[in-house]
Amino acid sequence: MFNWKDDRNLTLLVDFYELTMANGYLKNGIGDKIAYFDMFFRNVPDGGGFSIVAGLEQLIEYIKGLKFTDEDIDFLRNKKIFDEEFLMYLKNFKFTCDVWAIPEGTPVFPYEPLLVVRGPIIQAQFIETMVLLTINHQSLIATKANRIVRAAQGKPVFEFGSRRAQGYDGAILGARAAYIGGCAATANTIAEKMFGIPAVGTMAHSWIQMFDNELEAFRAWARTYPDNCLLLVDTYNVLKSGVPNAIKVFKEELLPKGYRPKGIRIDSGDIKYLSQKAREMLDEAGFTDCNIVASNSLDEFIIRDVLQQGAKIDSFGVGERLITAKSEPVFGGVYKLVAIEEENKIIPKIKISENPEKITNPGFKQIYRLYDNKTNKAIADLITFANEEIDESKPLKLFDPIFTWKTKTIENFRARKLLIKVIENGSATYNYPSVGEIKSYCQEELKTLWDEVLRFENPHKYYVDLSLKLWKTKQKLLKQFAD
Amino acid sequence: MFNWKDDRNLTLLVDFYELTMANGYLKNGIGDKIAYFDMFFRNVPDGGGFSIVAGLEQLIEYIKGLKFTDEDIDFLRNKKIFDEEFLMYLKNFKFTCDVWAIPEGTPVFPYEPLLVVRGPIIQAQFIETMVLLTINHQSLIATKANRIVRAAQGKPVFEFGSRRAQGYDGAILGARAAYIGGCAATANTIAEKMFGIPAVGTMAHSWIQMFDNELEAFRAWARTYPDNCLLLVDTYNVLKSGVPNAIKVFKEELLPKGYRPKGIRIDSGDIKYLSQKAREMLDEAGFTDCNIVASNSLDEFIIRDVLQQGAKIDSFGVGERLITAKSEPVFGGVYKLVAIEEENKIIPKIKISENPEKITNPGFKQIYRLYDNKTNKAIADLITFANEEIDESKPLKLFDPIFTWKTKTIENFRARKLLIKVIENGSATYNYPSVGEIKSYCQEELKTLWDEVLRFENPHKYYVDLSLKLWKTKQKLLKQFAD
């Protein structure tokens, strides 16, 4: 029923260097050489303890539809730098790579491959821009939304940010990612049509201004929407005008029998103070069941602080600071070559850098999440070569990849592979879960993380270790460059 | 030739409350009441002295295509809160408003209406979300790009941010806005196809990794692209490996007669130090004409600082901090009801707030930009009622709308109306300039601003005054609420 589709031809939404390299690979006779790329990130935004990966459905749909139209080819030909052979290659372009990915909604950690692509270098390289753009954007918003949702301590958070989003997809796919991250609903109507995310809303200040006065505007609303009588009370003065007028209308029994007013929304001023006073006024008037919704430049810190100060707020509308991840609006995922194949053998590759944190983990890899069977909590993630298996029946020794003397031996655990195959030889092999399913899965997975990791300031660093085999290969490659 | 088109049906990219209000207006018999809305912003991002408005072409195209499909109507019917009469209204929806706008690329200031919409309340209200989303996003990026371009002091700035943009439009329309703001080119190929913005690019680190060693990779590039031999030198070690190998290849004369190598790109490390050392090495080897391009998390502050420290950089590739306006990723434009019509008379409306900066300027308005005929510099902007004319032949007295004792009388000036009609009774009356024309216009307009306003920290506050008539009306409305 809900079926997001994007019919735009976004094939040329690609960094131009992917095309110059592709042409060069072909010309140098290595276009079909098999390469492995990892997409991974290095830092959790806002100094958080984990990120939530999202965007896979959109990425797979893009890959499924990937083709070059005649118009695209003509455009490229006009650039006068590509060989005709390459343009013919693009004309007959067929994506034949394999892709592995961590399912959407999974909590993930720095340096873990969120996506692995294996295939002819031209193809595997070409999708870099869209891999990063798609996964970076939605992971950013899902991660930010979850911070805000955690701060709200179970009170619903509504995504209200479309008007301040960075472009139309920013609003639409941002609403999707926010829902995956835990938001209860969105103001963006098309997100319900496309994904089934509940769209909600009542009135803006202009509704009040269109009537002779606030009281008349409230009355008109109550008559029009007896089952959704939530009144915006801050057009003129919250405590002197808005709340008294709302109570007056609630008491006038304009609603048919059996209907109760929903409550009020406060969109400016000090929401801690105003919500406490408004709560008192509503309670005194007998409307203890009426909710107070707050909106106005909220984020996880303001929500945490006003709740700690005893604000009487039942739900939060969060706009610009969520939909742009304002405090840190970049999810810095990168896409790096980690191996090539020579005579059917995988040759791990490394990228050195003067900044040690920019050094890559070489090889074709898998990630195991290790859960304690007694507590059901995640103990650590272990990055291994793809062909390494973990024997759950034996104790497993983990060690820190930098401070290698720090070790830990675990027992009575289970190991779950995080990377699953989603595209095989160019064909999608993945059944998309609905966004509701992704959201539920995310919530379940978050329960496996210790509180220490969930904390949003100075969280405990979750262990992401390397297998001994992978660690040794990395050291060997590093030494080659040091020599 | 270049023709951006967006065939998606974005009608339901609308905050749900626009629909509940619209249904309510119709039900309360005021759906056809004429209303005036202003779009304006309150703060220049990053504490700058001005913003650059952008996005008008996309907004007009959206309005031109605005209609509700049967699928949209069915979806809304299923929400079970809209009247059938309203759904029929939407089925026959025809946009009949008038729209005035400030042309794209114009430097603009807080509280100036960037867009004015006049028409039946249902329609004028309905487009709020898309007006804000479209203009906020592109104005944000154009403004940020211009800051970065000014910091680069005439050295070209390339927009390299697609992979970190917030969604596909964030990348595509962000590239458009960045070009309007002054960028010389983009890495985003589709932006050239759609808008004619030059797309540029050479190689990523993976190109180097695909060959046996850096030298071989450079040689292969030189042979493939003799006319675009710009080598990425930081895959292993800039000064020990990258630059020496580049020089070696430049000297091998792999390029056909008449071709000169373009230069090098540095993408990590300290670009001030590395560029100075690399410059020395290139110069010593006789490649004084080879350029040095720098990229790696740049913004206006880093660019200003490294240039001040004598970095030898000829052009800059700027990614995530431009395409997301990282330092302040929200352009806080709002859309407020400012007047209604009663019996063909315009009744100004005001929105009060406990935060004085949130109080609106009432009425249907025009903005005049006043230029000094001698210096050709902009002296001030004057917001007036739409029917006020300015007599350039007489001295004009301006006064500060808050500190009213601060006055200034100007003579020998010309007054230019900033708001022009772009949609009349629902039909577009505006010929879009190309993005190149918008960019040139923007550069010309910036020349009319004093250096004091252009400064990017603590700029001089440009004067935006109200006409006496408008100021008096505002005071009267404020007083009504105080009483």
Structure described in brief:
The structure is a homodimer of 483-residue chains. Helix content of chain A is 37%, strand content 20%.
3D structure, described in words:
The structure is a homodimer of 483-residue chains. The first copy, chain A, has two domains: 16-141 and 329-482, nicotinate phosphoribosyltransferase (Alpha-Beta Barrel); 202-296, Aldolase class I (TIM Barrel), CATH 3.20.20. In chain A, 37% of the residues lie in helices and 20% in strands. Chain A contains 17 helices and 21 strands. In chain A, the strands form five sheets. A seven-stranded antiparallel sheet of chain A has the order 13-12-1-5-3-19-20. A six-stranded parallel sheet of chain A has the order 7-6-11-10-9-8. The longest helix of chain A is centred in the N-terminal third of the chain and has 24 residues, at 128-151. The first copy, chain A, starts with 15 loop residues before the first helix and ends with a helix. The interface between A and B is large, with 105 and 105 residues.
As a percent range, the share of helical residues of chain A equals 25-40%
Note the beta-strand portion of chain A: 15-25%
CATH topology of the largest domain in chain A: nicotinate phosphoribosyltransferase
Instruction: Note the total helix count of chain A.
Output: 17
What structural class do the secondary elements of chain A suggest?
alpha/beta
**CATH C-level category of the largest domain in chain A:** Alpha Beta
Largest interface, chains and sizes = A-B, 105 and 105 residues
| Assembly of the depicted chains | homodimer
Average of the residue pLDDT scores of chain A:
96
What name goes with the CATH superfamily of the largest domain in chain A? nicotinate phosphoribosyltransferase
Radius of gyration of chain A: 26 Å
Main beta sheet strand tally, sense and closure of chain A: 7 strands, antiparallel
Distance between the termini of chain A: 60 Å
Shape of chain A: globular
Count of all domains of chain A: 2
